[in-house]
Write a structure and sequence with these properties.
Distance between the termini: 23 Å
Radius of gyration: 18 Å
Order of helices and strands: EEEEEEEEHEHEEEEEEHEHEHEHEH
Shape: globular
Number of strands: 19
Largest sheet: 7 strands, mixed
Length: 294
């Protein structure tokens, strides 16, 4: 397997979920071993690498920062890049937030499809999980354990008639992201929406870019895209946040009621435990890895 990048540049525009600012986004090819790098074109092309060290905070969205320059709500775009198998890309953004589009990653996945994905000369690398690492907070938790592919097993539990307990498993390969995950939208509860607005957040939020749940139903008239759209979106967020590890993953993620904060904590715990992972070239020969030092 070789590393990949975009075959051409492609751009779109939208508004920021929390800031309501208009934003132009351009996805561009990048050299091997670049990973994902954001460029704030409104600040002279200032670069913010999409990695764990750049995470500033992640309460209602994942926000990156480098030397005081921030970029918010990066998770859906990163999810599309990783989910669609792009290893290296520059992302030009002309404001302080990635646009929310329709609340899913579908628009970004379509951009990648339109641009095309091309192979590069260097071998594709993956972070192979060797030991299980987990983080917990009350009844919420997430762990990653050894596996031969990138697998996600996610469970959510909300006391709402449209959600309840939902569980879904996914192996990230063969177009599974575009087919099963990309179009799942973000969601929120009407009482949360009011509190967030009072906190000067989600100023760009609307029924066009989120599912808004009432006590017994939803405000959106368009209905759900999948009966389990909610857990599918949580998987989307997990893929986007864990893309900050900087390369493909070989491991099984098991998440129960997790969120951005736990995703960030898992990545930090994993990287700190140097015996829990190694970087390998793909494809991995099992007989070789079995005798490799941990």
């Amino acid at each position: 397997m070789k590393q990949t990048t975009l075959a051409a540049s492609v751009e779109t525009k939208g508004v920021g979920l929390h800031t309501a600012v208009p934003v132009q986004v351009r996805l561009m090819p990048a050299p091997p071993d670049t990973g994902y790098v954001f460029r704030r074109t409104d600040l002279g092309g200032f670069e913010i690498p999409a990695n764990v060290e750049s995470v500033a905070h992640c309460s209602y969205a994942t926000t990156l920062m480098r030397t005081g320059v921030m970029l918010s709500t990066v998770e859906h775009l990163l999810s599309a890049l990783r989910g669609c198998g792009v290893d290296n890309a520059y992302v030009e953004v002309d404001n302080l937030e990635v646009p929310i589009m329709d609340g899913s990653a579908e628009a970004f996945a379509e951009m990648i499809e339109n641009a095309g994905v091309t192979e590069q000369p260097l071998a594709r690398r993956a972070l192979m999980v060797r030991q299980t690492v987990s983080v917990e907070a009350g009844n919420r938790g997430i762990k990653i354990e050894p596996a031969d592919a990138y697998e996600i097993d996610c469970t959510i539990d909300f006391p709402h008639p449209l959600i309840g307990v939902q569980r879904r498993s996914l192996t990230l390969d063969n177009g599974s992201f575009a087919r099963d995950i990309a179009s799942a939208r973000t969601f929120g509860f009407i009482d949360e929406v009011e509190a967030l607005r009072r906190a000067n957040l989600i100023r760009g939020g609307s029924l066009e870019n989120a599912i808004v749940l009432t006590k017994h139903g939803m405000l959106n008239e368009t209905g759900l895209r999948f009966p389990d759209e909610f857990v599918r979106h949580k998987i989307l967020d997990i893929i986007g946040d864990l893309a900050l590890l900087g390369m493909a993953l070989l491991g099984r993620v098991k998440a129960e009621r997790s969120g951005h904060l736990l995703h960030a904590a898992l990545m930090s715990s994993l990287l700190r435990n140097r015996a829990a992972w190694e970087i390998v070239d793909l494809p991995v020969q099992k007989e070789v890895t079995a005798s490799s030092p941990a």
